[in-house]
Design goal:
It is a single chain. The chain is of the alpha/beta class. The chain is built from 9 helices and 8 strands. Strands 1-2-4-3-5-6-7-8 form an 8-stranded mixed beta sheet, with helices on both faces. Strand 5, helix 5 and strand 6 form a beta-alpha-beta unit.
């Protein structure tokens, strides 16, 4: 009965919050995932300052196990922070509540009735939704970020490693998963990583997170680690979005075209002076 009361209270709180302020700008949508002929939900937040004539930063958000796109985009403080800074938010479903975004391979968290390649489709869903957002909005490719909580944190690691060219920075929050080193050397010079975890996280122990951070350091990857002695599995996400967005604003992906133009200009100057 106590658990039910707490659940009802949280549901009421989220409902009341959704009726005011920037939460009114959240849009719940669907698109057709052709591989399984099924409509997959995703959620979008558009800040009031959005101007289609200007490039706008975007954060892709991945939910945890048993959650959804519609739920994580309503995490306390998330849309408020995005509204304040003028960021688009796009939350992917990953096909369902347990797809793992490819972090556990082709099969993901496959259960009875799921597609046999759930993990593969979950990953594809994220990239599809990113592409949909890029087509609809004037997204800044140098300021496109990936953030996930719990299972979504694992998805953030996985998709960050697999598609480092897509992201300016990663933010795994209370990340679930294994102690894999992944291939973190791929990230050096490509993007930054802010890792957030709580010592009192009983679902995803902090030691596994510390190993990942040690690997970031070993490979020379730009990173910031925030560890909170009283942080649990949930509050480390809800309470520290400002620090995450600060890190995002500090990490803008280098435009290779601009870099090449500068190099060509320097070569021309040297030829002129020779």
């Amino acid at each position: 009965m106590q658990r039910l009361s707490v659940s009802l209270f949280l549901l009421l709180l989220l409902t009341l919050e959704s009726l005011a302020g920037p939460r009114q700008q959240i849009q719940n949508r669907k698109y057709l995932l052709k591989e399984i002929d099924r409509e997959i939900p995703y959620s979008v937040f558009v800040p009031s300052s959005y101007d289609k004539s200007k490039k706008t930063p975007l954060v892709m958000v991945l939910h945890g196990l048993g959650s959804s796109a519609a739920q994580i985009i309503r995490y306390p403080n998330l849309v408020e922070e995005a509204e304040k800074r003028g960021y688009l938010l796009v939350a992917a479903e990953g096909v369902n509540s347990h797809g793992w975004y490819g972090a556990y391979g082709k099969y993901g968290g496959n259960r009875r009735g799921d597609p046999t390649n759930l993990g593969e489709l979950s990953e594809k869903d994220v990239m599809n939704v990113l592409e949909l957002a890029q087509k609809e909005f004037n997204v800044d490719p140098q300021r496109t970020y990936l953030m996930g909580h719990s299972m979504g944190g694992s998805g953030t690691w996985h998709l960050g490693m697999k598609y480092p060219e897509k992201w300016a920075a990663l933010a795994p929050l209370a990340s679930a998963g294994t102690n894999h080193d992944y291939d973190m050397k791929k990230l050096k010079g490509q993007l930054g990583v802010i890792v957030v975890h709580g010592v009192k996280d009983n679902l995803c122990p902090v030691n596994a997170c510390r190993l990942k951070v040690a690997n970031l350091k070993r490979h020379g990857v730009t990173h910031k680690y925030l560890e909170f002695p009283n942080g649990n599995h949930v509050n480390v996400a809800w309470e520290h979005f400002p620090e995450v967005f600060d890190f995002f604003q500090e990490n803008v992906k280098q435009d290779n075209r601009d870099e090449q133009d500068e190099q060509d200009e320097q070569e021309n100057i040297e030829k002129t002076n020779s």
